[in-house]
Amino acid sequence: MKTAPERPPAPPRIESLSEIGRAWLEHWWGLPHEGLLPLRSIFDPAAVPKLLPYLEMHDLREPGRSLLRLVGTHVAARYGKDPTGLDYLDFVAPERREEAYLGVLVPASHPCGMRVVMTTYFESGLHTRIEAVGLPMTFDAAGGRIFMFSDMVIGELPHTWTEPGRLTRYELHERQFIDIGAGVPDEQVDTQYSPMPES
């Protein structure tokens, strides 16, 4: 009889992880869980005040949509408004939506964690580089996937960052799946990777 996968006692060591990404990974790892995933109700935003401005929760229970249920202030600044309750995919150019959706759905469904480094470009011409560290949760006892990211800007936001407009494209520099006890997926969700630009 095959045994159910179990979460290792400690998260993997990822050398290039930012301080915020590491803190989110360690906090998620320590949450009470049944099997691999914690319930959404277990997560208390008030318990992580230093992380809260950097968190972004994607609700994947409705097929084809990635609804933003919690958006920290630093993340919301890049949208130019509070996008809580809106579909993340509405901020993505139509030709990129399927790939963007799969980029969240694949690790949420496997399940595993994920670290992504990318440069995002917006209709206004503004762009910024971010590190996003995403980890899955179960919405409630009935099921349903939630994916929660810490979302850290690498460098500083432009002073003119008020209405960046729709996300038009990204340059993906790294995507790393994080084994939480069930291995990592084989699916390839990206069409290309771009070299990391010099800072």
Can you describe this structure?
- This protein is of the alpha+beta class.
- Helix content is 16%, strand content 29%.
- The protein contains three helices and six strands.
- It has helices spanning 19-30, 73-79, 97-109, and strands at residues 55-59, 67-71, 113-122, 127-140, 143-153, 167-178.
- A hairpin with a 7-residue loop joins strand 1 (55-59) and strand 2 (67-71).
- The longest helix is centred in the middle third of the chain and has 13 residues, at 97-109.
- The chain starts with 18 loop residues before the first helix and ends in a 21-residue tail after the last strand.
- The model has no long low-confidence stretch (mean pLDDT 87).
Task: Please give the structural blueprint.
Elements: H1 19-30, E1 55-59, E2 67-71, H2 73-79, H3 97-109, E3 113-122, E4 127-140, E5 143-153, E6 167-178
Antiparallel strand pairs: 1-2, 1-5, 3-4, 3-6, 4-5
Summarize this, please?
This protein has 199 residues and is α+β, with helices and mostly antiparallel strands. The protein has helices at residues 19-30, 73-79, 97-109; strands at residues 55-59, 67-71, 113-122, 127-140, 143-153, 167-178.
